[in-house]
Amino acid sequence: MKPAKTRIRRAPNGAVSDKPVAVRLLPEERERFQARATRESRSMASVLRLAALRGLDECDRTNTPLTP
Asked: I want to staple 37 with a disulfide (CB 3.0 to 4.6 A). Which of 26, 47, 53, 54 is the partner?
């Protein structure tokens, strides 16, 4: 009898993983995210999520709007 496979969750606990958000990137932006994902052994989605959260935290901290 084969041992049961353990499901690996890629999203953090509590993350809404059944409602993905589409993001459009320029080719150069995509290359940068892909390079970081490879360097950190992460998925593109993970890197994008972490970068978005870091950026949002910075905007909240400095009370800076997202528009230039």
From this structure: 47
